[in-house]
Amino acid sequence: MMSSRSAFALSLVLWIVAALLLGVALLVSFSKDTLEITKGVKEKLTTRLKAESALEELKYYLVTGKPDNTGISNNLSAFPKKIVLDGRVYKTGNIEFSITDLSAKMNIFHPSPDLIASVAADNKRELLYTMRDSLKDWVDKDNVVSLGGAERAYYKLQAERNYTPRNSPAIQSLDELWLIKGFDTLSAKKRNQLKQYFRDVTTGSNINLLLIKPLYLAKLLHFNSNEVESLVKLRKTDLQKFMAIVQKNKYFDDDYMRSVLSYKVEISLSVHTKYATTKLHTVIDLKDKNTIRTYRYEIF
Fold first, then answer.
1. Which of 105, 108, 103 is nearest to 139 (CA)?
2. Where are the domains of the chain?
3. Of the candidates 267, 279, 285, which has an alpha carbon nearest to the alpha carbon of residue 204?
4. How many CB atoms lie within 10 A of CB 123?
């Protein structure tokens, strides 16, 4: 009888010990998770501060550096000796950044339907006509449908959208462009790729032919792929010869096609650590070095 009670007591003690060990294990697990979360929050704050600091350093680099036709040179040790303002990505430590002078992008506030559609359609002929005509219909003031376009009836009845064309040339953002027939079929990946060609900040309309991407150059001046490939190589080695060739092109317009910076730039940067990433995007005006104007600022 005593042996049976002893066995029962021992069993009970063992169960209690097991429960306590389980509780300790859970507590340790919760503590570890809390520690990981705390570490993540700390690193997020650290990356945010580092991103904001890097932005201020880049501003200083740009306003104190020596400009040329394509970028800014400076001897600040933290960054490359020259930053080309065409959107290329630079890396320094755990910071990645790119800077694009807005003269390298199309201004959609004053859209050219033919040019925008030719860049966005990716050589798909039917899609090009749909985009071109739909963009024309979106910005014109009438309700007359172009051949491949769309007016109020299409959006409200056929496509069952809760919006209609703007009927004004002042498109407000890239997000609005994706609402238009043809453009609304583009994938998120394709839309993201097209951001390197379009801008929705109204800060002048001059184009820097030394910075624009090959596809943009080809569509702007109607060069074929072989011609534009040769021109892109040439502008890296002989700017004067490059400009002499493009100036002879019948589509060249010296009223707005230039080879100078606008000093209005788009900066994208990110800071990475093991537990956190902070991304920052801003558009600023550096024309007046004493008063830097910010058009857009996003950090997340």
1. 108
2. 1-105+196-206+260-300, 112-194
3. 285
4. 9
The mean per-residue pLDDT over the stretch 13-18 comes to 67
> pLDDT tens, 270-288?
999 988 999 999 999 998 8
Pairing of strands 106-107, 198-199: parallel
Residues 71-109 pLDDT 10s: 999 998 789 999 999 999 999 999 999 999 999 999 887
| CA–CA dist 200, 81 (Å, integer) | 30
Provide the whole-model pTM.
Answer: 0.84
How many residues in total does the chain contain?
300
In whole angstroms, give the CA distance from residue 151 to residue 158: 11
Integer CA distances (angstroms), 147 to 118, 138, 141, 265, in order: 17, 13, 16, 38
Q: Give the pLDDT confidence score for residue 268 in this predicted structure.
A: 97
112-194, what's its fold? Ribonucleotide Reductase Protein R1; domain 1 (1.10.40)
Q: Which of 141, 212, 131 is nearest to 170 (CA)?
A: 141
Residue of 241, 284, 233 whose CA lies nearest to 259: 241
d(CA 175, CA 187): 13
